[in-house]
Write a structure and sequence with these properties.
2 copies of one chain form a homodimer. Chain A is an alpha/beta fold and 232 residues long. The first copy, chain A, folds into 2 domains: 65 residues, Arc Repressor Mutant, subunit A, CATH 1.10.10.10; 111 residues, Rossmann fold (3-Layer(aba) Sandwich). The first copy, chain A, has a 6-stranded parallel β-sheet with strand order 8-5-4-9-10-11, with helices on both faces. The first copy, chain A, has a 3-stranded antiparallel β-sheet with strand order 1-3-2. The first copy, chain A, starts with a helix and ends in a 34-residue tail after the last helix. Chains A and B meet through helix 1, helix 4, helix 5, strand 10 and helix 8 of A and helix 1, helix 4, helix 5, strand 10 and helix 8 of B. Chain B binds a DNA duplex (30 and 30 nucleotides) through helix 3 and strand 2.
DNA sequence: AGGCTTTTGTGAACGTGTGCACAAAGCTGA
DNA sequence: TCAGCTTTGTGCACACGTTCACAAAAGCCT
């Protein structure tokens, strides 16, 4: 389940405060979910609670860590050392939970060779060798969108089956390869959508702005030209 | 719907290539979804397709942009100018679609005053004033986790009702405020989970490691001490 | 020892989202 | 004008995730 990491984080916080046991109600509140859902999720791992008492925090932390595979470490390669790749390389959150940044790669030979976060950036040419030698199991793509699919293909060909994609593209991968995507502009657009709904009292935008009539569409127009219609 | 931004991106790409119309089948493939689902999503906006032909690309781009509220621009404030905040400030993906970084803020007076991405970083003390004067409608939290809830509360008090949270915490907000979260380590943990499942042939970790027996738990232990059990 | 309280684990109802399949609609060409 | 082809829009069934509600279990207090 995709909620286990959330529970794990809440449990870790409790653990640091020295709390020995926690009820499903408390833990659910901390994770922001329904308590019945939480119990069902945990029961999927086995019966690790004690009725009338709750769950043993330390024990549950271990069980979830094990289920998530965090008892081993996962070497991660970051491909594309631009703004975001740079930030991720320096991000402390990786190492804290079983993830280790094993390699940084970039297609630009001016970037390759630089030291970032204590590591030397390698060139894309070495991708296959690095993946093999360092047993990299997870690839993080932080390249520009046009390069993402090509990088993805090379990662898959090199044997990687888990990819975290920050590039704003839909990656196509063969069966058996997991891709998760993080897309900032999509998140913002969803927020904008809801924000607009809240202030829906304003005069609604016209359904058929002259600039966007479907009839006689310019067809070949080099586009990018969003109609600049700005409702009042 | 949360898929509209995906469609919009695919449509924009088609638009740039000068494609005049597109069928639900093609667009669905580009967005990586089922064609029936796509048609249903689009029909929710109204009947903008032509049977036997497909959808007019430019027209649909406009309709979706309007639905998402992208025909107006949304001033965004980034709070917490660390690695990630720095990267986001320089990220071009914001401006490209109706979003404008209106302000950068940080609690550290050594950071406030610096110029980043052509803007002067302001101090947190000015948050309320900045939100009011610049009509900021979306707050992006890139602070460390412990500071996130406090920042969130101040944003909400200042009148912001949409928050994009990068800090690894569950934010609690009053009714009517939308929070979306982007959590790198959760994404990685989900990948690790599936990765472990794939290689599930390895000798399973023990169910009851001595280090994590629930009986006689150390209780007050200052935790953070994940059992260091590493199966084999 | 036995009843009372607390809390888990889960059966069952509910709601939502997904995908199939097909009729209606529009275009094209003769 | 009309037949035939293409593609949308949607009714329907299904599967999944969510939530309620409660019985069984465990601890505690008298």
């Amino acid at each position: 389940m995709a909620r286990l990491p959330l529970y794990l984080r809440a449990l870790s916080a409790l653990s640091e405060r020295g709390v020995p046991t926690v009820s499903s109600e408390e833990l659910a509140a901390a994770a922001g979910v329904n308590s019945a859902k939480l119990r069902k999720d945990l029961s999927y791992l086995g019966s690790y609670g004690t009725r009338g008492v709750g769950y043993d925090v330390e024990y549950l932390v271990y069980q979830i860590s094990r289920e998530l595979g965090l008892t081993q470490d996962w070497p991660v390669a970051i491909i594309g050392i631009g703004n975001l790749g740079h930030a991720l390389a320096n991000y402390g959150g990786f190492a804290s939970r079983g993830f280790r940044v094993a390699a940084l790669l970039d297609a630009d030979r001016a970037v390759a060779g630089q030291r970032i976060a204590g590591m030397v950036v390698r060139h894309m040419d070495d991708l296959e060798q690095i993946v093999r030698d360092d047993h990299v199991s997870i690839g993080v793509i932080t390249t520009p969108a046009p390069a993402a699919q090509g990088v993805c293909d090379r990662l898959v060909a090199a044997g990687i089956t888990s990819i975290l994609n920050f590039a704003p593209t839909v990656l196509s991968v063969p069966e058996g390869v997991d891709v998760r995507k993080v897309d900032l502009s999509i998140e913002l657009q969803i927020l904008a959508f809801h924000e607009q709904r809240k202030s829906a009292v304003d005069p609604a935008a016209p359904d058929l702005p002259a600039a966007a009539q479907p009839a006689a569409s310019p067809a070949g127009g080099p586009a990018g030209d969003l109609p600049e219609v700005m409702p009042a």
